[in-house]
Every structure is written in structure tokens, then in C-alpha cells.
Amino acid sequence: MVLKGKVIKYGDNVDTDVIIPARYLNTSDPKELASHCMEDLDKDFSKKVNPGDFIVAGSNFGSGSSREHAPIAIKYSGIACVIAKSFARIFYRNSINTGLPIIETDAEFDEGDELEVDLSQGKITNLTKGETADFPPFPEALQKIIDAGGLFKAMKDM
Questions:
Q1: Segment 12-26, tens digit of pLDDT
Q2: Cβ contacts of residue 94 below 8 Å, gap of 6+?
Q3: How many CB atoms are closer than 10 A to CB 89?
């Protein structure tokens, strides 16, 4: 699977409470969650994200509570993939289970860079700067979950 979009960049320690504030957890509607994604960190997020874009962040992305609402809000906002130096483990698993690809890499990208991400080859190409970075591709079982759109959808296909 090859993804292509622009970078929306954040720093370290982006926790689940800024990804989707607790005041919106009274709904499970993915579109409603997406409309409030990142609003406490970046009030313009919903206006600047385009389908296929990437969130790029520093270390410890998705820390905090184990709410699965966070990767759902990100996915339904139009973000194709989250790229960070590291992820909180529960966020990592929740992302896979909801079909949101996430990549750990130390590669540096700037706000607005256009990227092409090849999930099966483990390669990120920065089309803006002409640079590439490698990452370990997902194991086959996890890639099947992502390709299906999440764990529940993958289980239906079995």
C-alpha cells in the first residue's frame, strides 16, 4: 500500500487527551470524533487536514489514557498515517486495531513536506526534499488488519 500526502507536524508527548478531548467521549460516531481531533492542540487542524495527509510527531505520541477514540478520530479526520519517533504502546495497538497505520522512525520531516509512504516496502520518500528513509514494514498479520480497515473488519474476512 502506497500513501501520499502532506505533513502536519507536532512535537513530543502528544497525549490522547489533546488528540480527542475527554469532553467528546460521549459519542462513538467517527465523523463527530474527527471534527474535534487535535482541537485543543491545534484549533486549525480540521481546516488544514486533507485526505491522505500525515501527522508527524516526536516521541511518545498517544500517551495518556487507553481510549481507542484517539486513533479513530485521527483516521476519520483524513490522516492516512501517523509517523513519530515513538508511540505509547496502547496507542500503537489501538491504531492497528482501528486500521490506522503508524510508523516509528527517527527521520525528520517539516510541516508541509509532501511524502510518499510505501507500507509494504518500508520506505518513506520526501518528495519535497528528495530524501528517503526506511522503516521496518509491518508483519504480514498486522498488515492484513490495516489493509482490511481494522481488526473487526479483518475478522469478518476470515
A1: 999 999 999 999 999
A2: 62, 66, 67, 68, 70, 71
A3: 11
